[in-house]
Amino acid sequence: MNLGNIRLKKYSLLIGLTVIITIMIATFAFTSKQIRDNQKRIEALLVKHTDSAKQLVSKSNEIFKESRLLLDELNSIPATNNKLDKGNLYPTYNLLKTSNSPKDYIDASKLISIITPELGKNLQRIEDMAVDQFWSAQDASGLAYEEFYDTTNNINILKVVAVIMSIFLTFFILKNQKIANRKLAYQASTDMLTLLPNRSRQIENIQEQISNKPDSIFAIIFIDIDYFKIINDNYGHDVGDVILNKFAAKISSYLKEEDVLSRFGGDEFVLLLRSINSQKQADKFVKKLSSALDTSFQVGNTEIFITASMGVSIYSDKCKNECKDPKVLLKHADIAMYSAKHNSRNCFRFFSKDTKDRIESEHNICHALHTILKNDNADKQLHLKYQPLLNIKEQDVTECEALIRWTDQNGKEIVPDRFIPLAEKNNLIEKINLFVVNEACQQQYQWQQNKQKPIRININLSGNKIVFSKLIKQLRYNLKKYSLQPSLFGIELTERTINEISKETILQLDQLRKEGMKISIDDFGTGYSSLSELKNLPVTTLKIDKAFIQGLPNDKKDHALVKTIIDLGHSLNLDIVAEGVENIEQHLFLKKHLCNVGQGYYYHHPLHSDNLAQLEI
Predict the structure, then answer these.
(1) pTM above 0.90, yes or no
(2) DSSP 3-state helix, strand, coil percentages of the chain (rounded to 5)?
(3) What distances in angstroms separate CA 215 from CA 208, 322, 323, one per listed residue?
(4) CB 299 within 8 Å of CB 312
């Protein structure tokens, strides 16, 4: 083989080796680059999941400190369920107290899982993710487990941070629960419109005052805005809410730091007045406050005037035993406030035993009346008596007035002046009037069946527009039911009813008058009676109130007024009835001045139906 061929082979081998080496080097370089790229990609992936974790680790001392602070609050947090049982947190608490290293927290993961299973699941998910990332990285890099673990340390970081986050979140939940509990407690004890204490909280305040300072003197003031419903009806509830806030602010401006104002609901406020030492001081304060609350508030472009009624009860040595219960004090203040409203409103009253007895008596009467009417007067406590009216000129009786009477189960008479006003205030007057209408019609029917001489029954009707309309319809129904003539009845209109009568009802009255029914204005000359009513209503009769009759014949004013009413009625072709005639002098005066009819004890007392039937008429 010549030298040239040898050199060619050598060079060819060298070139081949060079190519192989180059290929090997290139392959190795490519593989190394791929491994490095994979490792970087894996590390980036790990970093993506651990950036926040590393930040938490770097701030671990702050996390541990916050955790300790939260743990220190555990004693004041009630254990509301097993998941948040603070007894389970004490091992973790000890761990936090004795260690400053995040790595020591890995062993706490089991505790976290026990305390909050949901967080425990999240912790396990984070750790599982870390392990999956490790195996993927180890397979891609070809590095040994120990080598990869030592170089990345990511699994350890993730585990530590998972535990730290779980611990922190556990106490964060507890802290939020404490805040939520406080919020619920605040809402449960606060009126959310005015942000004042509500009823339950104020009762607690009063109880604390009684328990902590049993020898102190303080006042409970019940405050109610007069006619607040009218404000709501006329201006709307939004304006009403503004008024309530302004009203509360007005009261608060007169209070000292130890006094507590609360809203019980609606337009009712209760003040715990602790800044007094005597009833005299309470009286001085209430006078000042009552004057201040006679005021007006500007709402938008509208000025709204208000007044308030107040009731005051005093806690002192005199009532210490009776008033141990806050509700007793509140009841006393409420009774006093009711008395203020009953009196005239825009005033105040202090609680007294006389007031209490009167209110309780009224309550008992109303309750008994409710029961009687609910049971359709089954025990006949309510009944009618009939007072004859005398025709003064003819000296005979052709009519009577049906008067309701109440005899309770013990045989005690309850006078109408006692229960009728209460019935009107408690919306019972409609049922009472219906009872009178039905009873009178039944009695008239009974007299008709017994072939007795006809005598007109006058029925006194009262009530608002709707109630009066119902009464007229019921009367019409009874006339048809018992086949009775309208001329056998008369209707006496009270002044309140006159103001409430609708145009439709006036037409109905006019038709009844044309059919022979007598229509009278009762108690003429008092209250709101006006001459325009004589023009507009189909009236047949005027009844002069007994207040003008009592002074006859000597009182010059009564003399002039009665004579004027008689002359006025006659000029309008109306009959005149004088109520409350009690002596011969009054009778002679009325006869002299041509009064048509007299009614009173001088002629007849109210009679039972049987006695009236036996009366010579």
Answers:
(1) no
(2) 60, 15, 25
(3) 13, 14, 12
(4) no
Compute how many other C-beta atoms are within 10 angstroms of the C-beta atom of residue 248: 20
DSSP at 585: H
Q: Say if residue 95 is exposed, middle or buried (CB neighbours under 10 Å; 0-12, 13-18, 19+).
A: middle
Task: Please tell me the total number of residues recorded for the chain in this structure.
Answer: 617
Tokens of 79: 């254990």
For 50-63, give one letter per residue: b (16+ CB within 10 A) or e: beebeebbeebeeb
Instruction: Show the CA angle centred on residue 373, arms to residues 427 and 579, nearest 5°.
Output: 70
Q: Which two tokens stand for residue 191?
A: 């009126």
Q: Positive or negative, the Cα torsion across 280, 282, 285, 287?
A: negative
Report which of 451, 441, 449 is spatially closest to residue 402, judged by C-alpha positions. Answer: 441
420-442 as b/e, with b when 16 or more CB fall inside 10 Å? bebbbebebbbbbbbbbbebbbe
CA distance 572 to 535: 9
Task: Assign 3-class secondary structure to 43-54.
Answer: HHHHHHHHHHHH
What is the DSSP pairing of strand 489-493 with strand 456-461?
A: parallel
Question: What is the spatial distance between Cα 108 and Cα 104, in angstroms, rounded to a whole number?
Answer: 8
Rounded Cα–Cα distance for residues 246 and 13 (Å)? 107
Contact 604, 385 (CB under 8 A): no
Domains of the chain by range and CATH? 44-187 (no CATH), 199-351 (3.30.70.270), 369-614 (3.20.20.450)
Residue carrying structure tokens 């000025």: 303
Question: At residue 36, what are phi and psi to the nearest 5 degrees?
Answer: -65, -40
378-402 confidence digits (pLDDT tens): 999 999 999 999 999 989 999 999 9
Determine the Cα–Cα distance for residues 199 and 193; give it in Å rounded to an integer.
13
The structure tokens listed for 527 are 């209250």
Cα 336 off chain centre by: 20
Say how far apart CA 295 and CA 92 lie, in whole Å. 63
β-strand pairing of 302-306 with 268-273: unpaired
The residue-averaged pLDDT of 363-368 equals: 91
Q: What is the largest CA-CA distance in the chain?
A: 182
Q: DSSP label at 258?
A: T
Give which of 179, 185, 130, 187 is closest to 159, Cα–Cα. 130
- Listed ranges 130-139, 248-257, 359-368, 420-429; the one with the highest mean pLDDT: 248-257
